[in-house]
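Predict the assembly for these two chains.
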Amino acid sequence: MTRIRRLSAALVAAGVLGVAAPAGASAITTITISGATASYPLVNLLAQKYVKVHPNKVKFRIAQGGAQIGINDVKAGKVTIADVSRDPLPTDTGLTFYPIARYGICIITNKSNTLSNLTTAQAISIFTGKTRTWSGVPGATATGTIDLISRTSVAGVLTSFQTNLLEGKKVSSLAAEEASEGLLRQQVENDPSSIGFVSNYQSDKGTVNAVGLNGVACNRSTVVSGQYSGTARFYEVTKGNATGAALAFIGWIKASSAARKIISTQWVPIT
Amino acid sequence: MLDRLRQPWQDNRAERSLGAVAVLIAVGVVAMVAFVAVHAWPTFSHDGLSWLGPAPKGTSLEEQIATMQATGVNAPAAAYHLSAWPLIYGTILCTVPAVLIGLAVAILSSIFIVELAPGRLRRIAIPVIRLLASVPSVVYGLIGILVLVPFVGNHLITASEKTSVQNTVELTGAGLLVAIVILTVMITPIMVALICEALVSVPSSWREGAIALGVNPVRAMLAVSLRAARPAIVAAAVLATARALGEAIMISMVSGSRDFAPRISDGLTFLYEPFRSLASAIVDYHEGIGAPALSSALYAFALLLLFSALVLSVGGYLIKLPLRRYQVRG
């Protein structure tokens, strides 16, 4: 009999603990985010800071995947916020876009290829697959076939690149497709005859050669000064209007000086 | 209360409970197949048998999948179009050569290990091979992407080979060749381990009898030992093929991940061309399952893989039937 009594006492104790633990934890809200790999470094920094200035209020779970993945996830109610690295499209119905930062999209080549500038017409010719050899590109020091490195179709940077730098032309289907900005940069680092495009955050690291566009170099300062034309915006996107913790977070990004300081390190605040 | 559990089971009760567990597993498998089939249905019903074929002119599998992702949550019927041929072809193209090469190597090396190797070597070789058979595939994938892919890209692929296909596809090093090489390395140890076991269990009196009748030892090995081990060889090949078909992560890492069907008309260059297999497509696209059209397509790939596993095991069984006469159990 004593064994049964002890057992039931243990069960009761476990039950009490089980009920008490979630009750204590429920004060912390979790904001789930998925989407653009390009804005991930920024959003990650912002989230860390936000948690620091609002202790024991919120938790973040940030996934990547690509802008379109974020859009689909937020539409389906799987996440609170989608990170998006392209402007709203007509298909993005029922969503609210909050711009949080501006960034430049840089065309990059391998370090050994010191190509310094392309015109828009040249860029279009290369990325649509019309020019296939480096001998057809004045200023390029690489030889042989051009290895086009692009992003998978869900990438917002790809959409922005096509709209803002290639005048709406599509990147050739010949191009290899990388799942993230980091992988693209790495591929360009390894392949001497490659060309690709990344946000200025990736090219400013200096491990690849950032190619200028129409005579303007591509880096953070030319994006800030407005000289570089190939820019796009990062958005936080919610289903309908943002509410609750998501609204507080987005409001903090737009208003607080701490967030502005983080954005200004590698990106450009929205003015 | 607990004391009753400590007592030995009565036969009838043990029979029922063990039977229940077995039935539960069977029900689980059937339920899983049914679940996958139900979710795969929308994509099959839109395309019928053309689902298995190549994409119609002017589109490509990559564009079809991009449409699925772009249309997102409320996908219209047109977004479901899918032509999975490049994936099916890619799967066959990397699996068949890997299994054939692996099988030849496995048979020869197990004959060596069991019949010819000195005892000390055999005692080391068999555990090492078992260990190799259990190396996780992602480790092989990592070696592939860090070592083999750059090597093939920088040293094997020539500039003229690149130029010859520059208007169809890019050669970066990741492609069919690396995938076949690593897949072969991955599945051969499994086959060696199984075939070794079967060869070891052939009664030595059988072979000794053959030698006593005047056959030389090599002949006796081939005619008696290997013959008796045939069912085990088939079983090893089936198991290895199943592993190769289902290999996802490694292929996703080294195949170049393009929905491209390598063209044999390009000559040997086709070995360098990128591709994607059914299993690696599930890995590559799984983040997009928020889009219902894409998630249905992924379930369809999974169903095709399940179906091929069924065909494999039934096929293996049918091949083994006539070989049973002198079989030893592996």
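The two ends of chain B are 45 Å apart (CA to CA). The mean pLDDT of chain B is 89.
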